[in-house]
Amino acid sequence: MDLAFFTPALSLSLGDIAEAAGVSVPDGFDRGLLIAGAAPLESAGPADLAYMDNARYGEALAATRAGACLVSPRFAARVPAGTAALVCRDPYRVYAGILGRLHPDAMRPGSLFGASGVSAGAHVHPEARLEENVRIDPGAVVGPGAEIGSGSAIGPGAVVGPGVRIGRDSSIGAGATLTHALLGNRVIVHPGARIGQDGFGFAMGASHLKVPQVGRVIVQDDVEIGANTTIDRGASRDTVIGEGTKIDNLVQIAHNVVIGRHCVIVSGVGISGSTTLEDYVVLGGQVGVVGHLRIGRGSQIAGSSNVNRDVPPGSRWGGTPAKPVRAWFRELTTLARLAERGAEPPERES
């Protein structure tokens, strides 16, 4: 990694990392060995930590020069003799936690200006209320009645509209805009996101009459919203993003949508108005969801699918239109067989 962008905040010993993984340091290795950074298997050196839990990288594991490697039990035998094998059940999750300790500045957007407090080039309305330790970069605008909690950072060019409330330890990326919105604690909004603008509402006719959108956007604690994602405010009730939900870049969430807790929504998804996602739903990339539907708790929708009816809880669906995966796979298999038959030359008559 480029140290100009990601300088480790500290060094950890092999013993520290083993303790975080809940394992012992392997025999023959020094607990005090300093691990200064993290790197992929292919490029890791003796002072680096790597991880491995995917069979595709078996050859890279066997050739790695990493000082230590977090590895799942089934691959432990392939770790080279010079690398400390830290065998654990979930190497990637442990690796993520260690990486967060080494690079806390990569966990959420911070001040791009190195600002402490309100920069001289920021525009904060006198009626806005800021708690202590709020950082605001040049070019940011904070409107009247806005409230920002302690430990939060507002990036350059970001706009926090009138009456918007942002909880503590939240981050608003460069160029993002927030209007008609209430955000909880530890919310991350990446650059260019648009939250709280008009929903797409018109009374159709010979001329289309605009329907005023008078709801809000409610974003609960620990939500992350990707770059250039748009979340429309409600028409007459609120658009809600539930606690712990993670939303990728370039997602469109329409008015009155309610998303439950700990959902995962991947890039390119479009969710039409008044649809509800219950808790722990996963939508793969480029999924389209028709309006006024309910996707049940824990359901998973395969990428590029189109959902046009309610999905029962705990389901795995895919296709266009989306259907249970077994039916979808049968359909694809049948079409493939028909295509193969159609490609065969006709039998000659004797």
UniProtKB/TrEMBL annotation:
Identify the Gene3D superfamilies for this entry. Hexapeptide repeat proteins, MurE/MurF, N-terminal domain
Which ranges carry the UDP-3-O-[3-hydroxymyristoyl] glucosamine N-acyltransferase non-repeat region domain?
Answer: 34-99
Write the Enzyme Commission number(s) for this entry. Answer: 2.3.1.191
Tell me, what's a Pfam family for it? Hexapep
Q: Which UniProt keywords apply?
A: Acyltransferase, Lipid A biosynthesis, Lipid biosynthesis, Lipid metabolism, Repeat, Transferase
Which class of enzymes does this protein belong to? transferase
Active site: which residues? H255 (proton acceptor)
Reaction equation(s) it catalyzes: a UDP-3-O-[(3R)-3-hydroxyacyl]-alpha-D-glucosamine + a (3R)-hydroxyacyl-[ACP] = a UDP-2-N,3-O-bis[(3R)-3-hydroxyacyl]-alpha-D-glucosamine + holo-[ACP] + H(+)
Which InterPro entries does the entry mention? Hexapep, Hexapep_transf_CS, LpxD, Trimer_LpxA-like_sf, UDP_GlcNAc_AcTrfase_non-rep
Q: What assembly does the database describe for this protein?
A: Homotrimer.
State the family it belongs to. Belongs to the transferase hexapeptide repeat family. LpxD subfamily.
What is the protein name given in its UniProt record?
Answer: UDP-3-O-acylglucosamine N-acyltransferase
Q: Give the organism the record lists.
A: Methylobacterium jeotgali
